[in-house]
Amino acid sequence: MPDPLLTVDDLTVAYDGAVQALRGVSLRVDAGSVVAVLGSNGAGKTTLLRAVSRSLGTVGGAVTGGTIRFGGQDLARRDASWAVRAGLVQVPEGRRIFRDLTVEENLRAGGYTARDARARAEATDRVFDLFPILAERRHQRGGLLSGGQQQMLAMGRGLMTSPKLLLLDEPSLGLAPQLVEQIGDIIEQIHAQGTSVLLIEQNASMGLRVADRAYVLEVGTITASGTAAELASTDDIRDRYLGVG
Ligand code: ATP
């Protein structure tokens, strides 16, 4: 069996000490795989990512039970900068890029942990190979990019530290179908280059297309899991998430 890169075990999360957003959630991401977490609005997908990236505290949430292990280490015992250095990087929802900085400056900001200028330049070149449109627009300010290009920049910035695991929060949100396809292709390329991906998606057909395994999250609990092919052929998933019946 491959080594688990990320293991979430029996995770419970509450907001403001009251609202239970996740109850007993368990999942794993094996090294070298793409795992999708599917679910509709309010199911708890963003909460799950916030727990893994340890940004819950900033929005009034807290882990109230269970464990999250990355590379065999209990994340509760490590600080957030350890996680980034160990290769766990989140690309936030809503393309939070620096609007007033150029594309190149945004990428440089993402590469702050790079050993030196040369390592940063190499990382920038890799990102430009993956997203040629960003190379073309390298001197343009982030705020002037289209929605799809901003999503690419957010992903590119996350890749600047050459993470082992990239956490993607709804990269397809608000994008036209053709761009969703393109983002799916890019996730496949990122995977092919050796980076594992945990992908949170409301767009189940995109999620199941790129993922090896997937989990369905409903009102804070996992209600189905399996290989992407298994889930795509399950009647209930087809009816409720893929819009075919
Ligand atoms: P979406 O696709 O709309 O982002 P989601 O699946 O990511 O949905 P979450 O945002 O994780 O869902 O929300 C899960 C539950 O937690 C919801 O009931 C939501 O109202 C609640 N919740 C989320 N953030 C907070 C917060 N900061 N304070 C209180 N409750 C919150």
Biggest β-sheet: strands ordered side by side in the sheet: 6-7-8-3-9-10
Mean pLDDT: 90
Question: Total helix count?
Answer: 10
Q: How far apart are the termini? A: 35 Å
Structure commentary:
- The protein has 245 residues and is of the alpha/beta class.
- The protein is built from ten helices and ten strands.
- The protein has helices spanning 45-53, 80-86, 103-110, 117-130, 132-136, 147-159, 177-192, 204-210, 228-232, 235-241, and strands at residues 4-15, 19-30, 34-38, 61-70, 73-74, 88-91, 165-169, 196-201, 213-218, 221-227.
- The longest helix is centred in the last third of the chain and has 16 residues, at 177-192.
- The two termini are 35 Å apart.
- Adenosine-5'-triphosphate is lined by residues 15-16, 19, 21, 39, 41-47, 59-61, 202.
What's the SSE blueprint?
Elements: E1 4-15, E2 19-30, E3 34-38, H1 45-53, E4 61-70, E5 73-74, H2 80-86, E6 88-91, H3 103-110, H4 117-130, H5 132-136, H6 147-159, E7 165-169, H7 177-192, E8 196-201, H8 204-210, E9 213-218, E10 221-227, H9 228-232, H10 235-241
Parallel strand pairs: 3-8, 3-9, 6-7, 7-8
Antiparallel strand pairs: 1-2, 1-4, 4-5, 9-10
Bound molecules: adenosine-5'-triphosphate (ATP).
Protein name: Branched-chain amino acid transport system ATP-binding protein
Domain ABC transporter: 6-244
Family: Belongs to the ABC transporter superfamily.
Compact description:
The protein contains ten helices and ten strands.
